[in-house]
Each structure stands twice: as C-alpha cells, then as structure tokens.
Amino acid sequence: MSVTQSTADPQLGGTVTIHRLGPLCVTTTESGPVEIPPAAHAIGRFTADDHITVLLQVSGCVFLDQNDRRTLLGPGCLAFTDTTRPYTLIRGDGSRTHAFRLPPHSLGLREADRRRIAEAPVPPDTETAALVVPFLSRLADRAGGYAPHLRPLLARNVADLLATLAAERLAHGTPRAGADPAGTLLRLRIKGFIEDHLTDPDLTPRTIAAAHHISVRHVHRLFQAEGTTVGRWIRHRRLEACRRALGRPARDAPVLTAVAHRYGFTSYSHFSRAFRAAYGMSPSEWRGRLGE
C-alpha cells in the first residue's frame, strides 16, 4: 500500500510530505530555521512506534542533538537515529531532509548496535554512501509515483542497502575483535528470510541453510556469534508478530488460537507460556491492556 500525505506545518515554517511503501515510511521535510524538541519524536523500546530512522540531508544543514552530543548534518550526509532515546533536531534556513523509517527487524540490528551506529553520521564521500545516497534520494523524490507491485520490492531494497551500510559502520566505525562483515551481511539476509517465512511451518535451520546454499552448521555459527540460536530468534520474531496481530483494533482482532497457529505454535498452551515468558503477561491480558 502507498499512502501520500503532504501538509503545510506552521510550526516548521514549511511542508512535510509522507509516502508509505509497505513497511517503509518516507518523509520529506522542507523548512526554515526551527527547533524540533524530543516530544515530537516517537521514543520507547516497546511502543508500537519503535523503528529505525535514517536521515538524509538534501540541502541546508541540520543539527542533531542526542546523548549529550551535537552532530552537524550537511548536504549528502546520512545519519542513523537512536529512537530509543530522545533527540532534538535544529534546522537551518532552506533545510530539506528525507527520513526513511523501517521496523527494527528490517535491518536485523540489536539495540546496542543501533546506539553505536547513531554515534556519528555517515559522510557522503565513503564508498558505500556514494552508492546509497543517490538511490535513496531518487526514491524519496519519486515515492508517490511507483506502481503498487514495485513498492514492497523497493522497501526491501532500501532495507538491504541500509543493512549493508549499518554492517559496514559496525565493522569499521568501532572495530571489535573477530568482526566479520561478510558474516554480518549473511546473517542480516537470513533474518530477512526468516521474517518473510514466519508463517511457514517448515521454517527450520535446514530449510534456511538450503535457501542460502550453506551448511546447517554455518547457520548455527552465525547466530552463535550474536549470543543466540536460530530457534530462539525464530521464536522471538514469531512472538513479536503475534503481539502485533493482537494489537489490532477490537473490530479487526483475530481469535487468539488463530494467531498462535498462524505463526507456528501448534499448541495454544505452549504459545501462552512463551508469550508470558517474553512479555510478562498472557496473550489475553496483553489484548485487554491495549483495550483499556
């Protein structure tokens, strides 16, 4: 689905245009000098608005204040924002900024990694940025005109490019012993595959390995490097999918058992125990709390 909304914002002294391409939200903001306080940004680890946002400064300048640090974004600069912490944007005159917003799982980043890549902007003269920036800029400028069948593919392409950029930043920006950029990228691709097959009852390490032409042992090693297992990651993502489904408005709310079965839980009692262990309440209690 693509939804386009363009509005004049007196507080910004400019306009905000929003395009939605499936899970990707592209926002273009054009404004004069203005300070946007933390209250204007969605924060909080467990809110429905939890997301990854990447800013692309097109023209003019923006100051990003976060974590007691002020960062200047000039034309062509990219910046990952840590939406789990408040931040302030200070826009200069003639500022034009694209913002690309995706669910956290799209990039496969842990919270600690999200904070690390938010520590410094990506300058436009790096090799990867030189490839990514023109693509993102053209996509944002034309976001309202893409055919429906292209929108999910474009969203996936954006996620893949940003995941590659994030992996590069994590590997080279703050080096760690044993850092493996190739392994990181493969793990990100596998996580995307898992996300696309959460409802598949045959989603197993063996089917994942076959789809990526690697051994089952290699799949296990990739997740061990993150301190988890393939099975735990699949269960975590399925529980998150269930939690989102249960958060729908009452008139559209699916049956609890149907949600559990859709995402691979053959036993409702097993699903309920796993849900409680993950979120501290039962599925029905979660739904009831949302309805309060």
Secondary-structure map:
Layout (H helix, E strand, L loop, with lengths): L1 E8 L4 E8 L2 E8 L2 E3 L15 E8 L2 E5 L2 E5 L4 E4 L5 E5 L3 E8 L8 H7 L9 H16 L8 H22 L8 H16 L8 H7 L4 H9 L5 H17 L9 H7 L5 H12 L3 H8 L2
Antiparallel strand pairs: 1-2, 2-3, 3-10, 4-9, 5-8, 5-10, 6-7, 6-9
Shape: globular
User: Which fold name is given in CATH as the topology of the largest domain?
Assistant: Jelly Rolls
Spell the H/E element sequence: EEEEEEEEEEHHHHHHHHHH
Helical amount among residues, as a percent range? 40-55%
Task: Give a quick rundown of the structure.
This protein is an alpha+beta fold. The chain has 10 helices and 10 strands.
Question: What key phrases describe this protein's structure?
Answer:
292 residues; alpha+beta; Jelly Rolls; 2 domains; 6-stranded antiparallel β-sheet; 4-stranded antiparallel β-sheet; 10 helices
